[in-house]
Amino acid sequence: ECFICEGPHRVKDCPNRERFNAFVAQDNSGANFESDVLARVTLIQLISALRTVPPSDLMYVHLEIEGQQVAAMVDTSATHSFMLERIVHGLNLKVDKYSSRIKAANSQA
């Protein structure tokens, strides 16, 4: 079900969609990563959007990270997930630098 219009399609295919989110992941050779998933938290952190009280109109799952309960927003059409840097530091997660690059874009709906 579409989060924008509740139609029978994904958000990425919504005819009412004016908002877009895009990113490109590359290594230093310029190769794109379509299906590779990083096994560690990088400077652009993993897990979409974490909040202590999630809004009721979005899909969330409850996770336990480093013994702490968090809620993670689920985006079924996303190929990568991200986490706010302040959440990473608040959970005392190890952050490693990674040579790949991710470009992201966002606009208003």
Uncertain segments: 19-24, 32-55
- Helical amount: under 10%
Proportion of beta-strand residues: 15-25%
Structural class per helix/strand content?
mainly beta
**Tally of individual helices:** 1
Domains, number: 1
Q: Roughly what is the average pLDDT, rounded to an integer?
A: 65
Write down how many β-strands occur, each being a DSSP E stretch of 2 or more residues.
Answer: 5
Rg from alpha-carbon coordinates: 15 Å
Strand order of the largest sheet: 2-4-3
Largest sheet, in brief, is: 3 strands, antiparallel
Q: Assign an overall shape.
A: extended
What gap, in angstroms, lies between the N and C termini?
18 Å
Give the topology string: H per helix, E per strand. Answer: EEEEHE
Organism: Cephalotus follicularis (Albany pitcher plant)
Protein name: Gag-asp_proteas domain-containing protein
Pfam families: gag-asp_proteas
InterPro entries: Peptidase_aspartic_dom_sf
